[in-house]
Design brief:
With 363 residues, the chain is α/β, with parallel strands linked by helices. It has twelve helices and twelve strands. The structure holds manganese (II) ion.
């Protein structure tokens, strides 16, 4: 009962907050790689904010790396702009962040510009101050929370724009709950609400599960270099182009189907970072805790990695090592370091690491 009271008051809060900000300029920021959940939430917030007469702009920073997400933006004709770190936000009184664990942004937010809305379903990485703050770890997607907000608004779902938003939210819920495998009651009730408004043809078009040729190739490399330790499968895939970054996670998803494997970690070098994804079906392993234990904190106190119930990721800057001209040597160094951290975490000593090195030499 408590939960219902709490969530409905959160729903009321966003309306009160947006109403009080009417007439002002709001910058809706998509943090990290744009994905179905955060794109849908940006659309829904944009709609809500406009209904309270705010002037809005949706911006993103990282390339849309997944071809399905590029299709989503194109098919839904979403008006969002990719900006560089020198973007001038001085005309905005407010900004908003959805579906992200922290408030850091690649652009400079001026002092007078306040965080109006922060909505998420992950464990927050630090304390966040926002006029409207709604973090619910017991929900499978931020899209479900936004659907709840729409239910308490004038949203009728009958205009073209509203159909588009409903379709995007439905896709966001499906994507983040792995097609409802990890859905919670709010994800189901949100989907039930949206189901009458979605454009089914459009939904089919944007959610078609295609694996790009690049991801196929990466999966093959990951299989060749797989390193199985007990119920863990680790695989370093070497250098990955920025636009193929999402392939790492898809690859890990695929490898998790292997019998006897409970946890998969796939990683590679993407640009100037070591970038990795963890997937697990273990009942005991907490991806968030596991990755934080393995990689620890950055100097600024934030973590290199984190996650939620069944998945996680990490990003470690190469720093000055990114300048190393010998790419092969650099990869060997990275792989050895990362693998040893994993072995240490799961309690396999140096001998295990040595066996692996000799094994890898044979490939
Ligand atoms: Mn999400």
């Amino acid at each position: 009962m408590n939960k219902t009271v709490e969530s409905s008051s959160k729903s009321e809060s966003i309306h009160t907050v947006l109403e009080s900000a009417g007439g002002k300029n709001l910058l809706i920021c998509l943090k990290g790689y744009p994905d179905p959940d955060n794109i849908a939430c940006a659309l829904a917030l944009d709609w809500l904010a406009k209904s309270y007469k705010l002037n809005t702009k949706i911006i993103y920073f990282d390339d849309i790396s997944h071809h399905e997400n590029r299709a989503l933006v194109k098919k839904l004709d979403i008006d969002m702009e990719q900006v560089s770190p020198d973007f001038d936000a001085s005309n905005y009184q407010y900004f908003a962040i959805n579906d992200s664990q922290s408030t850091e942004l690649p652009i400079k937010i001026p002092e007078h510009c306040e965080l109006l809305v922060f909505v998420d379903h992950h464990k927050p990485l630090g304390s966040v101050k926002a006029h409207h703050l709604d973090v619910r770890e017991n929900v499978g997607s931020t899209s479900s929370i936004y659907t709840e907000y729409l239910q308490g608004s004038e949203f009728k779902g009958d205009l073209a724009d509203e159909t588009k938003i409903a379709t995007a939210l439905m896709h966001g819920i499906r994507a983040d709950t792995d097609d409802y495998v990890n859905a919670t009651s709010l994800d189901y009730s949100a989907s039930q609400f949206l189901s009458t408004f979605v454009d089914k043809d459009l939904l089919a078009l944007i959610s078609r599960q295609a694996i790009s040729a690049k991801t196929m190739d990466m999966t093959q490399i990951a299989l060749q270099h797989k390193d199985i330790k007990e119920t863990f499968l680790f695989s370093g895939v070497g250098y990955v182009r920025e636009e193929d970054r999402d392939g790492i996670g898809q690859c890990a998803d695929y490898l998790l189907h292997r019998e006897g494997i409970e946890t998969v970690v796939v990683y590679g070098i993407v640009g100037t970072f070591v970038d990795g994804s963890l997937r697990t079906k273990s009942h005991t392993l907490d991806p968030d805790k596991w990755l934080k234990d393995v990689f620890g904190k950055k100097e600024d106190g934030t973590w290199y990695g984190g996650g939620r119930k069944d998945k996680g990721g990490f990003q470690i800057p190469l720093g000055v090592f990114a300048r190393c001209k010998d790419r092969e040597l650099l990869w060997i160094l990275i792989k050895k370091t990362i693998d040893e951290l994993f072995y240490e975490k799961i309690g396999i000593g140096a001998q295990g690491a040595l066996d692996n090195e000799l094994g890898a030499g044979k490939v």
